[in-house]
Structures are given as C-alpha cells and as structure tokens.
Design brief:
WH-like_DNA-bd_sf, about 160 residues, mainly alpha, RecX_HTH_3rd, Regulatory protein RecX, Regulatory_RecX
Length: about 160
Amino acid sequence: MEKEYSKPALDKRSALVKAESYCAYQERAQQEVRNKLYDWGLRTDEVEEVITELILNNFLNEERFAMNYVSGKFNIKKWGKIKIKQGLKLKKIPEKMILKALNTIDYDDYLKTILATAEKKSAVLTEKDAYKRKYKLITYLMGKGFENNLISEVLNDNNLR
C-alpha cells in the first residue's frame, strides 16, 4: 500500500503572498494563477478572493498579459496569428482581448516575418521537386500559425518555391 503524501493546504494570506511573487516574476493569465491556487489547496471562494486581490493590486492584468504574450510569441518565437490566438484561447483569455492584442502586430512586420521564416526554411529544404518543395514550405509556415492566403501572397510575390 502506497501512502500519498500531500503538502498541507496554504492559508489564504500566505497563498496571496506566494501568488503575488508568482505574478511578479512573469505576466500570468488569470486561469494560470487560479490553477496554481487550487494546486496549493485553496477552496473556490478563497481562490476567487485571492484573484480579486491580485487584480486590485495590479499583479494580475489579463489585457497586459495578452499584449505581452502576443509580443513575445510574434517577435521572439516568430509565431503567426493563428497559433498565437490558439495559445491565448487555451489560457482562457476573452475573445475581445485576444483580437485587441493581435491588432498590435504591424501588418508590414507580419509579412516580413512570413518572408524571413520562409527564406530561412527554404534554405534548408533538400527537396528537389518544385511542387513538393512549395508544399513543404507552405505546410511549415501553416504550422507556425500563419494564414494560408498571406503565405501564398508572400511566396508568390517573392518567387519562393
């Protein structure tokens, strides 16, 4: 018989302090913090009180989180809007906030990113057949979360095959 050892549940006050440092370390979505508070053994009413306290003290801000998430995933990871939107949906960010954050991406920068990503991938593709090569390139770019119509536009405008 295995005994399951679990940590004693935190009281609301110490959970708030711990959650403040958790949020201060990096921007967090409300759902991430909520899950963490449940992991720490808080009850539903306590979790909601701590979340409210974090919002009032500006440790938690969904809009700020969404903006930072979009900025990081686009500028650093070179993700497309589709993949970014999915990531935000998984974190239970409201649709309006997702769209507002995605609209901060400059259209010209977005097209340049698609082109740069396509050129980088094209350089390492070993496929000789032009159709298969283009298919692999499109599939790769779609996997990065870029929209099909923009991929086609960028590839055609820059003669990438």
